[in-house]
Every structure is written in C-alpha cells, then in structure tokens.
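Annotators were shown the component list below and the corresponding predicted structure, then asked to write short factual statements about the assembly.
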Amino acid sequence: MGYNSKINNAASIAEKRLSEFFQTIAGLSLFSIDFFKNVIFPPYEFAEIKKHMDELGVKTLPIVSVTGFIIGLVLTMQSQPVMARFGAESFLPGMVALSVVRELGPVITALIFAGRVSSGIGAELGSMRVTEQIDAMEVSAINPFKFLVVTRVLACTLILPMLTIYVIFLAIIGGFLAIFLSQGINFELYVNAVVNSLQFTDIIPGIAKTFVFGYIVGIVGAYKGYYTENGTVGVGKASTSSVVIASLLILLVDMVLVKITVLLWSN
Amino acid sequence: MPFIEIKNISKSFDDFVVLDDISLNIQETENMVLFGRSGTGKSVLLKCIVRLLEPDKGEIFIEGKNVLELNLKKLNEVRKQIGFLFQSAALYDSMSVRENLEFPLIRNFNFTPAERERKVKDVLEKVSLEDSIDKRPSELSGGMKKRIGLARTIITEPKLILYDEPTTGLDPITSKEISQLIMELQKDLHTTSIIVTHDLICAKIIASRAVVLKDGKIRYEGNIEDLTSTNDPFLKDFFSDEVVDSYNGRN
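Structure shown to annotators:
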C-alpha cells in the first residue's frame, strides 16, 4: 500500500470517528433536553434516587478512598524536594491543599467515578434495552426515562460532590502523613497551614464543578445504555464508550470551567 | 365495531419492507394467532399496536381510538388496558418477583398495600408459582420466567393481551402448559388476545382465528383447521409435519 492510500485511509477513519463523536454530542444534547423536561415535572422518584445514591456511593467508596489518600501522600513526597530546593517547605501543606481542592481532587474523583459508574450505568441500561425490559416499562404506561435515566443522573450529580469532599479530606491526611514521616510536623500546625492557605474562592469552584462532572458521568452512561443496539455486543460497546466519552468530556469541561473560574475570581 | 381495527399499516426498516399495507380486524374476546416465517413482521405488528414502533403509514384503532394520533398521556391510558408478554418475558432483573408484579400496580393504580398483596398472591396462584414470590428473575427457569411474565401481564386485568412467542424456548410439555394457562386465563378474564407464535400445538389450543403473514402481507386468514389442511403450497410447506416436528424438537 502506497503512502497516499495509507494517508487517505487514515484520514477517512479519522473523519468517521470525528463524525461519530459529534453525532454523540448532538445526541447527548437532545438527551439532556429530555432530562431537564422530565426532571421538572412530577412524579418525583425520591426513593429511587436515594437507592442509586447509596449504591453508587458505596460502590465507589473503596477505590476513591485509596486514591484520595495516595494522591495526597505522593503529591507531598514528590513536591517536598523541589520545595526544599527553594527553601519553601513551609508552603508545602498549603500547596498540597490548594492542588487537591482546586484541581486534583475534583478531576481525579470524577475520572474514577466515570470509570466505575458510567460504564455500569451504560451496561445496566444497555442490557435492559436488549432484553426488552425498557419496552416492557413503556408498554405498562410507565415512563422509563423518568424511572431509569432521571434517577441515575440525579444520583450521580448529587453523590459526586460528596465523594470529592471525602477524597480531598483523605488527600490532605495523606499529605500530613508524608510530611510527618519526613519532618515530624505537628498535626495542629499542619491543619493551621492548610486552613490558612485555603480561601472561599478555592473551595467553592472546586466543589461546584463536581456537580457538572457528576451530571456528565450520569448522562453519558444513561445515553449510551438507553440507546443500545445489536444485543450483547452493543451492551459491551455502550459500557466502554460511556467511560471514554465521559472521561473526555470531564477533561474538556474542566478546562472551560477553570478558565471561567479564573476570569471570575482572578482578582 | 371491532375491538382492534388495523388499517393499511406499512412499516419499513431502511429499504426492507416488513409490513406492506396490512389491514386486519380483531373482535372482542377473540384469540387471534399470527403465524409467519421469522422476519415477516409479526412482532413488528404487535409493537406497532402499542406504539413501541411507529408505522410509516396507516391507522390503528383500539376501541375506536386511533392510537397513532394520541398524545403520550392518552396513549398511556390506552396502554393501561393492554398487557404485553414479551418473548424473553422481560422481567426486571433488579427486582424480585413480588416487586416485578407490584411495579405496574404501584405506578398506575391506587391499591392499598393489602390489596396489592392479595393481587400478587392471586396471580401467582393462577400461574402456580406461589413459592417464587421472593426469588429474583436470575433464579428462575425459562418456563418460570414466562409464567411470571404472564402473571405480570394479567395482574392489571387488561382487556387486550399481546403475546410475542409465549412458548419459544420451552420444552414441549412446558409449552403446552403455558398454552393451556393462556387459554384458562382468557376464559377467566374474557380478554382479547393476539398471539404471535411458530408453535402449532400452542395455536391449536388457543386460536379462535389464524392469520399468516408472508412478504409483509396477509397470506391467509381463517380458522386453524382449514389452515393446516389447505392445498396452498406455501402453507402446506409451512405446516408440514416435518417442519412442525423439527420446530417442536428444536424447541
């Protein structure tokens, strides 16, 4: 195969992928409109939302606990020599807290949540679609969108901020352990340094964006699962593509939100 | 006035015409069996009746209401009068048998918990699966799933029941039991039924009328005895002992 045909082949594959991506974004936008239409009007499925929040929270808790603690520990261990070189070791607790609160905590928790939950929602709704359970609901005069999609998306939107706060807390503890082991710092001193370094404008945008990330995780998984086709193969694809798209969107939206935060609170 | 009136329904998927200008009337309390080779649009027709699929053209009237023109709220009022038994039974995996049965009652009706409990026990008794009330669908055999699916279909006491291959995937004995059960329920509840099946034994037990679809059109309409003794080459082939035995054996 000549270079020209290879390039043409690669270009047509890239074009197809790009077109699929934009089709997904368009589909997701319409799906989101349906979500907001359904979320406003009763009946409200509070029991279902609570059930999903319990399930999603419990399911994700072990992995985010380990991750949160290790982020704080490793970040501190990596930063310590650099800070020491500039004689700025006293700023270490503040630096760890700021990094974790503003960026690392929200984004890493969201990415882990996407991997764990978006794929699960995609697979669950996908298998319900291919085994006609969603059709069975619809034909029983029950709104499957409200019962299956709205409840899961709301649960994701509400539970992710809580998980993020928990991860941030554990990361700060991990940071303390790293400094304590190397310098033997007092816990009260460490907490003071952390609290003094954080401001309202650091905490609120960091936590607020996790509502958006939670929504992305829920809506992408639900969208991919709800419109699954081609049997069990389709379920697998829905599960995998949910994680990929949700992770990509989290990073893209984070970039935009960080820019907005900087513009709003730069002074 | 017929209970269901299907007028000139057509449905295509891309270039493949599945239903081609089908018209059909079903009278109240009639049990109509729909035959045809795989892919001839039997299940598509059932799904068009409840608007799980939208036909490309035509009209479908249920008790005089054109279901294709109803808004979602009015369509759901009609759907509450319809039961649909899916080929796979479509039990909700995440719920127990009890929750599966209670689900449409809680959502669509105002029964007290005691009334719901009584209804659940009644339908489970009808399908002889009282002991399975707290089991999950994954713990049930294929025949039990079909029975629970049937119980969920009749718990709301619908006027019309649509059966999509109720005996597919079952052994001949269970298949016969399910067919007899459908017949008994029909007698008890006086429902109108449309049954999609390939199973001649099931059809002979249930059918008061049979319709055969071929190439998107109605090829035959009449009673089951005439259908199986016809000289039409396609029907003769379709209902030949060899084909029927091989189907039942495979089943």
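Statements collected:
1. Chain B has a mean pLDDT of 88.
2. Residues 78 and 211 of chain B are 24 Å apart (CA to CA).
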